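Support request from a user on the community tier.

User writes: "When I paste my structure tokens into the form, the page sometimes reloads and wipes my input. The last time it worked, I copied everything first. Here is what I submitted, just in case something in the input itself triggers the reload:"
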């Protein structure tokens, strides 16, 4: 059942995530993986915003969400065609930008793997933690639920299947005082290691494609600086 209700209430406005040297650095590194004309999916929040701010080539937006960073990208003339998203999240700036534009579509369309994989898709996601083989947790720590799985496995899987696609996970080496590279995930796996091509931290880029488990572990440790505790 779909229910549509008219209201005179303004859309919910979200505060913009603060910029840090860490987010700016892995945003800059992640942006080097993008080619002109690529279709981009990106996570909402500080990681996605840092990534979009660092872009300097024209791209297509094909993502689960659109926010203030999209507006800035458009103002710089770097969005090709009409952007596509499932929902908007941000300040009043993004709602005014999207007004009268056909940006939003149902999740059955935006998250359709066949459609997504039929383009040069770069899926730029983030994570709460990642294990030594590249498996990803985006949901929580033990019994503490932080978020749902969302479209993380959909976009990552589509990017891996796409010709010239790339599935990227970008995250800081430490989040909330916890190291993000761990021996074992705190929850069941959100996205499998086979759907992760590249991992980016503020220290560098680890390309995991074609590597054995031992090689993946070495590559990941090299961009965290030391073994996880």
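"...and here is what came back when it finally went through:"
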């Amino acid at each position: 059942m779909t229910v549509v209700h008219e209201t005179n209430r303004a859309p919910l406005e979200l505060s913009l995530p603060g910029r840090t040297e860490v987010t700016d650095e892995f945003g800059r590194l992640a942006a080097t993986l993008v080619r002109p004309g690529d279709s981009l999916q990106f996570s909402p929040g500080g990681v996605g915003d840092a990534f979009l701010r660092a872009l300097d080539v024209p791209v297509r937006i094909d993502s689960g969400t659109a926010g203030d960073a999209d507006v800035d990208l458009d103002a710089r003339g770097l969005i090709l065609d009409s952007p596509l998203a499932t929902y908007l999240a941000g300040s009043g700036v993004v709602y005014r930008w999207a007004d009268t534009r056909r940006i939003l579509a149902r999740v059955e369309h935006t998250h359709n793997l066949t459609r997504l994989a039929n383009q040069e898709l770069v899926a730029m996601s983030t994570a709460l933690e990642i294990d030594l083989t590249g498996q990803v947790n985006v949901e929580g720590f033990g019994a503490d639920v932080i978020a749902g799985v969302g479209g993380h496995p959909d976009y990552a899987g589509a990017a891996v299947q796409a010709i010239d696609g790339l599935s990227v996970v970008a995250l800081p080496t430490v989040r909330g005082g916890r190291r993000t590279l761990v021996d074992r995930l705190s929850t069941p796996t959100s996205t499998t290691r086979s759907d992760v091509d590249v991992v980016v931290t503020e220290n560098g880029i680890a390309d995991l494609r074609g590597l054995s488990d031992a090689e993946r572990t070495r590559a990941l440790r090299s961009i965290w600086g030391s073994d996880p505790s």
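Agent notes: The reload is a front-end session timeout and is unrelated to the input. The helical segments are 21-31, 46-54, 68-75, 92-98, 107-110, 113-117, 152-161, 213-222. The chain has one domain: 21-222. Escalated to web team.
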